[in-house]
Every structure is written in structure tokens, then in C-alpha cells.
Amino acid sequence: MRLVDKLKRKEKVDKVVIHIGKCGGSSVIEELNKRDLKFFEKHVGEVTYRRNKKYIIVIRNPISRFVSAFNWRYKLVVEDGTQKDLYLGEKELLEKYSDINNLAENIYDEEGNLVLDFKNDEFYIHHLKEDIDFYLADFLKKCKKKQIVAVLATETLSEDLKTHFNITLKSHLKKNKKKTDLSNLAVNNLIQYLEKDYDCIEKLNNMGVLTEKQYQKLSNKVF
């Protein structure tokens, strides 16, 4: 019996989709809604663990997610201007660094001291503060393997939806296809800054809830 059938038969069991920003979660939510699957969505908020719930986690490689988040905010806030006043200081910060490579190269100074901490309100950029660690760090300390019914990775999304829910994803449109080149310094800074995100992926893999292909894509640090 496929997971989609099991979930439909257990309507009394609450399901929670942990929708980490910039991981394709909107496509996942849309497809699950089409199948009338009952669930709560947790998005842009800390996840409160409940032992009587089942969880679906939507996740992405940390560096890819970080790059996508910056580029998407730059488009909405600076280029389009549709959200230029949504968060105090965000527009000025995006304009100051202008592209993801410049931002990443300046996360640390020459002595290795942290300069740009996006968890600090002074350097707030939407979805950079709300990273993988933000959603999963405390949650994974308590959650049991049997409660995670599916992990859906951006990099393997079509395959994952088919495997877990028998859903054929016809399209996963990327609204922001901006090409991004990262210097070695930028990549190394991001690897260091996103260490806790990568730790979450290691924990998921150690729990046995990732496929080999998912782990390879999610843990990648070569860009």
C-alpha cells in the first residue's frame, strides 16, 4: 500500500508539512491539496514538536537554498519593488551588496570574524534568517524516525513525490532563474556559515530517512 493510501485511511492522525522557505514547498502544498490530503503547513515559523503527529519535510541543499533566497528577495524588493517596504532595512542591505557573491564574500572579515549574521535583525533578509537550522534543529532533537513519513528534496522533488504519494509532478516552475557564480571565498564562507544547516542534514541521514541520492545532493558543498 502506498503512503498516500495510508495517510487517507488515517484521517485522525495529524500531518504537518514543514515547509522550509525556497525549497519548492509551494509546489508540494499545491499537489497535496489536489489529492485532498489533510495536513497543517508550518512555514516561516519555528516548528513545535508533537509526538502524536506525522511529518513531511521539504528541504534543499543549504547553499542552493541560501542563493535562491537572496536572489528571490533581490528580485521582489529591489528589481520589482513590490516588497521594498515589507521588512525594515532589507532593501538597503540588498542594495549595498547587490549580488549573492558579494554578500557571501563579506560574511566574515579577513580575520575570520563573523560580520554579517542574518539571524540578527540588523542584517535581516527574509528566508536567510529562517534557514534549515531555524526549522529543524530543536525539532530533530525530539522527533522519532517513524514520525517522519517523507522527506522531499528540491533536487529530487519529482522522484520523491512519485515515490511517497504517487504524484507525477508535471512542472516545478522556477520563477527566478538568475545565473549565479560563486567564488571560492564565497563558497567557503557559506559552508562555514551554514554549518548548522548541514548538521541537520547529517541528522536526517543518520535517522535513515534520506535516500542515498537525496543525501548526496543535500550534503554537496562543491559549487
TrEMBL record:
Q: What is this protein called?
A: Sulfotransferase domain-containing protein
Q: Name one GO molecular function term.
A: sulfotransferase activity
Q: Which organism is it from?
A: Mangrovimonas spongiae
Enumerate the InterPro entries for this protein.
P-loop_NTPase (IPR027417), Sulfotransferase (IPR005331)
Q: Short name of one Pfam family for this protein?
A: Sulfotransfer_2
The parts of the chain that form a coiled coil are: none
A GO cellular component annotated for this chain's UniProt record is: membrane
